[in-house]
Design brief:
about 170 residues, Rossmann fold, alpha/beta, single chain, globular, 5-stranded parallel β-sheet
Length: about 170
């Protein structure tokens, strides 16, 4: 195993947020959907107002061969999703300025339906009430992960979406 890189920052609640990235070479996956991102993997949109978390999440995904787009808030994320038909998975924070992750996810669901697209949405938060509420509303987001998010758990969830769409 290589070095670990951890990006940290404080969220809106003041709780630390971290995404760990190990510098091990990516392992090839089999059984992936048609090429839309790096190495035949779907393109992932990472939306988080914390630049360090965005950068670390991007790096973890790119190390696994994913093409990644970024947005710093929900409104920008929705705009990027609508403009880029290759985005198949969205990884988003909940608590962001201009438009939170839940509002953005609703907009993305609507845009995906209008465009005849399928999209997997993973929401990350450290707010227990949000986790409980959104786990009851599967039509908004597909997966809710509690921060700090384990790198391997996140990668497994992203992989799961493109395997389901085959």
């Amino acid at each position: 195993m290589g070095k670990s890189v951890v990006a940290q920052g404080a969220g809106k609640t003041g709780a630390p947020q971290a995404v760990a990235v190990e510098s091990t070479p990516p392992k090839p996956d089999v059984g992936l959907m048609q090429p839309t991102g790096g190495e035949g993997k779907p393109k992932v949109l990472v939306v988080d107002d914390n630049e360090g978390v965005r950068r670390a999440t991007r790096r973890a995904l790119e190390m696994e061969g994913y093409a990644v787009a970024e947005a710093s808030n929900g409104a920008e994320g929705l705009e990027k999703f609508r403009a880029d038909s290759e985005i198949a998975v969205v990884v988003t924070d909940f608590n962001m300025p201009q438009m939170n992750g839940e509002e953005m996810a609703k907009g993305i669901r609507q845009a995906a339906q209008e465009q005849g697209r399928r999209v997997g949405i993973i929401l990350m938060t450290d707010q227990e009430d949000v986790i409980e509420r959104l786990q009851q509303k599967a039509n908004i987001v597909d997966v809710v992960l509690e921060k700090p998010v384990d790198r391997q758990v996140l990668l497994d969830k992203v992989r799961g979406f493109h395997r389901q769409t085959q």
